[in-house]
Amino acid sequence: MSFATAGGTAPLRGVVVGAGALGPHWGYELHHSGDVVLAGWVDLLPERAAAAAAALGAHEVPVGADLAAMLDAVRPDFIVNVSPPVAHHAITLAALERGLHVLSEKPMAATLAQAADMIAAADRNERLLMVSQNRRYYPGLVAFRDTVAQLGALSNLTCQFFIAHRDDAAEFLLTFPDPLLLDMAIHLFDGARAITGADPLTVYCEASNPPWSWYDARRRMPRQHPLAGHVPRGGRFGADRAPRGHRYPRGMSQFEPGDVVRAAHPDTGDEMEGTYLAEAEPGERLEVDGEPVDTVWVELDDGETRKLALDGVRAV
Ligand SMILES: NC(=O)c1ccc[n+]([C@@H]2O[C@H](COP(=O)([O-])OP(=O)(O)OC[C@H]3O[C@@H](n4cnc5c(N)ncnc54)[C@H](O)[C@@H]3O)[C@@H](O)[C@H]2O)c1
Question: Of 115, 122, 142, 206, which one is least surrounded by beta carbons within 10 A?
Fold first, then answer.
């Protein structure tokens, strides 16, 4: 992967997208850095961006709700994407396709398919796409990492993390599925990468919602999430570009042929069950005709064939 670097001696100009809980922290950094200029601020609620800019004393900074209009008017060098995860994909692509660099908040995207698309867009446009993993730089974690490194070979790493997102939660967390897992677990996951110095080959997760939870009751069933695009075991796969002659009963995913898998119906969100079919070597990223696969075909009860994100399908 390569990306263009911004040259010249003038400070780089950045637009912040998102003025919720975290956006003002990024706005502060841009406004007070001598190396960059806060060139604009976008939020679906522009009064938030205006208030955040005013709080910094940056009254002259243009604010608005329309990202494309702001980017075309201000023509910045980069954006900082501090929007909710479900918006990361569209905002990041809009910037990359205009030839802008992107500094984004974690989690990179709401789905694995979106993340792969964003990486492809960054490569295609030869622009930097950086995802902030600030917690690996926390002094406590750095000290722990350095201490562990002096102890000898590491064989096992465990961690526990608790946070009760409720009254003080960002708005998007209350509607985001599995908020601790999909929004916060990346901090622990990246912390594990920082401590071990290793990159994982496969990841999976089991999630459940306790009976006293204030989140949606529909989410209380135990679930498994294949989080990475690696296939943990060999098998046949109903992949995006598989021959259309394949008949898929109702759902499919990674794992071995004949495994019963479940996924959410693409329209209703209801659970559906089916049998898995396809091919890949253990531990390899799944590819069809040399292309990475992040979607699968599913044939619905009415006979219609639809696409599903690979990371939305799991073993029973
Ligand atoms: N690295 C960290 O330690 C850390 C800490 C907190 C939050 N975050 C991340 O920062 C991001 C934002 O979190 P937050 O707590 O500020 O959320 P938030 O819900 O408080 O604020 C999000 C803001 O984005 C705006 N918005 C929503 N969709 C938009 C769109 N399409 N275009 C423009 N603006 C849009 C909303 O109106 C809101 O003002 C999330 O990805 C979150 O995970 C990271």
Answer: 206
What's the one-letter identity of residue 30? Answer: L
Structure tokens at 74: 């201000």
Q: For residues 250 and 299, is the Cβ–Cβ distance under 8 A?
A: yes
CA 226, chain centre distance (Å)? 14
Pick from 17, 22, 42 the residue to mutate for probing ligand 1's pocket: most ligand atoms within 8 Å of its CB: 22
Give me the tens of pLDDT residue by residue for the chain, a chain 316 residues long. Answer: 678 887 778 899 999 999 999 999 999 999 999 899 999 999 999 999 999 999 999 999 999 999 999 999 999 999 999 999 999 999 999 999 999 999 999 999 988 889 999 999 999 999 999 999 999 999 999 999 999 999 999 989 999 988 877 777 777 777 777 788 888 999 999 999 999 998 887 777 777 777 777 765 444 334 444 443 332 222 223 333 333 333 322 233 344 555 556 666 666 666 666 655 544 333 334 444 455 555 565 555 555 555 666 666 666 5
CB within 8 Å of 277: residues ≥ 6 apart: 236, 237, 238, 246, 248, 252, 257
Domains of the chain: 12-132 (3.40.50.720), 134-199 (no CATH), 201-316 (no CATH)
Q: Closest ligand 1 atom, CA of 83?
A: 24
* pTM (predicted TM-score): 0.73
| Distance set, CA 204 to CA 130, 141, 308 (Å) | 24, 24, 18
How far is ligand 1, taken at its centre, from the CA of residue 82, in Å?
A: 5
